[in-house]
Amino acid sequence: MSYAALMVYVEPDEAPEGRVRLAAGLADKFGAALIGLSARSIAPPILANGLMMPSAPDINALQRQLADRGSWFGRIADSDRRKTEWRSALELANQMVTREARSADLVVIGQAKGWASKFDPLDPGAAILRMGRPTLVVPKEVSSLSLEHAVIGWKDTREARRAVQDTLPLLQKAARITIFEACGLDEEKSALARLDDVVRYLALHRIKSGPMVMVQKEGSGAAQLLELAKKERADLLVTGAYGHTRLGEWIFGGMTQQLLATSPICCLMSH
Question: CA-CA distance, 99 to 94, in Å (whole number)?
Answer without folding.
Answer: 8
